[in-house]
UniProtKB/TrEMBL annotation:
Pfam families: GyrI-like. Signal peptide: none annotated. It comes from the Bacteria. This is GyrI-like domain-containing protein. Transmembrane segments: none annotated. Residues 134-156 are annotated as: Disordered. SUPFAM superfamilies: Probable bacterial effector-binding domain. Residues 3-153 form the AraC effector-binding domain.
């Protein structure tokens, strides 16, 4: 289930990121370790997280995930291993919050994209998800909240 979408202007957010390109089948195997690697590097550098972790999908392909796993930070991270400094972009986005298990995110995105199209907006080529609450805060997927963001390039 998604909350009523809205259009918002976001500010750029400094982040520590790891860029990954993997098949759809590999996504569940790489995200957890990448997040832990980010957290380890950020913590070792004495940098405080500045919000929930995210994934920024740079291009949408049903078979290949080309994305960054990221953690917002208060100061720039120094490159270390796979970790690099990065940003979530500023811009006008359609935004909603999905309630539920990650397995149903595809359905949530389809519902969200239908709303965007029905409003006459033209979506950009990328999307990002911010994981507001998840398995690290509750074992019950009904408690999980994922913010969905789709940049807009203009009205249709």
């Amino acid at each position: 289930m998604i909350e009523t979408p809205r259009i918002v202007d976001t500010e750029a957010q400094m982040a520590a990121v790891i860029h990954l390109t993997v098949s759809r089948d590999e996504i569940q195997d790489v995200m957890g370790p990448a997040f832990q690697e980010l957290l380890d590097v950020v913590t070792a550098q004495g940098i405080a997280p500045a919000g929930p972790w995210f994934t920024h999908h740079l291009r949408l392909d049903p078979d290949v995930f080309d994305f960054e796993v990221g953690l917002p930070v208060t100061t720039a991270v120094a490159a270390e291993g796979r970790v690099r400094p990065g940003w979530l972009p500023a811009g006008r986005v359609a935004q909603t919050v999905y309630h539920g298990d990650y397995e149903e995110l595809g359905v949530a995105w389809a519902e969200f994209d239908a709303w965007i199209a029905a409003q006459g907006y033209t979506p950009g080529p990328d999307v990002w998800e911010r994981y507001l609450t998840g398995p690290d805060t509750s074992p019950d997927p009904a408690d999980w909240r994922t913010e969905l963001n789709r940049p807009l390039v203009g009205p249709a």
